[in-house]
Amino acid sequence: xxxxxxxxxxxxxxxxxxxxxxxxxxxxxxxxxxxxxxxxxxxxxxxxxxxxxxxxxxxxxxxxxxxxxxxxxxxxxxxxxxxxxxxxxxxxxxxxxxxxxxxxxxxxxxxxxxxxxxxxxxxxxxxxxxxxxxxxxxxxxxxxxxxxxxxxxxxxxxxxxxxxxxxxxxxxxxxxxxxxxxxxxxxxxxxxxxxxxxxxxxxxxxxxxxxxxxxxxxxxxxxxxxxxxxxxxxxxxxxxxxxxxxxxxxxxxxxxxxxxxxxxxxxxxxxxxxxxxxxxxxxxxxxxxxxxxxxxxxxxxxx
Length: 303
Ligand code: FAD
Ligand code: NAP
Fold this sequence. Notes:
By secondary structure, this protein is α/β, with parallel strands linked by helices. It is 23% helix and 27% strand. The two termini are 18 Å apart.
């Protein structure tokens, strides 16, 4: 029996693990992949306070699990598949085990959305990618396209511009939503060609992607490229809790300022919660808030 079970080992979950275990709560963190979360897909992390030297997401997250374990947080590589309430306790099921706890912190984050063009699924791993850090290396001195107009698309286009010969940055509108400072860098990078008002109709090729067809101002345009990187936003991973707690219209978990959800003893932290600004610093803050309040809740229940 654990005091707190945290589901998800990204910045929110790991921060919750550090706080909860340091506060003396018997804590288990379940992470289905390697701990670190989606920031490990990022080539650059430079906006977390205290980071004066730019680091990759992987380097930045490297010691968070160790820090949590130092205070006694157990970390297991297991995917939570179900959350139930039995006899007033939480029961978490994974393919290997069942675990019980007094409180749960859900920190399962979000995952990249698909853009929805023809051939997108067919060519995943063969020229269609959602991670520049993972796959950028394969496009050294080649031509790639990046789709999207948010922070991720522009930052990753900049990263790819240092590896690839040329980067087409394709956006469906005529304005980016990325931070102005990032836009400025993109506009000043000679090997990034911006194509506004365009959507990708399809990717084509034999074994690997060889080109894309765009809808550009109502006309079709073909580009010869070697790879497509899709960065068109994220969807929240709410499957475990969608029938247990109140969600907003985008499927994000509703919380109050204590990160309490509508279900007593269940807390949400990070990208999964309503009004998250979807930043590492905010996710880490949420994790701390959730853990402090979860431990207070347990103490109160035991009085
Ligand atoms: P996540 O990081 O998504 O972590 C959730 C974790 O839960 C994952 O490890 C996942 O495997 C695990 N999980 C999911 N379901 C289960 C389950 N059922 N059982 C067990 N484990 C599960 N933010 C910044 O502040 N600065 C940046 O520079 C920045 N750059 C970014 C670049 C990219 C390419 C991307 C994609 C995002 C970037 N962000 C950046 C946003 C930032 O990464 C997120 O806001 C942050 O990681 C959210 O943390 P989280 O812990 O809520 O969720
Ligand atoms: P985002 O901000 O939601 O941007 C998604 C982009 O993709 C938008 O420009 C959108 O176009 C476009 N798009 C959506 N669906 C599309 C489709 N089907 N086809 C073509 N284009 C499509 O997502 P994000 O860039 O992944 O960022 C997610 C969050 O993480 C944001 O809050 C962001 O600020 C944060 N983040 C922060 C940093 C940082 O602080 N350095 C870095 C990365 C991410 P429209 O503009 O027309 O809607």
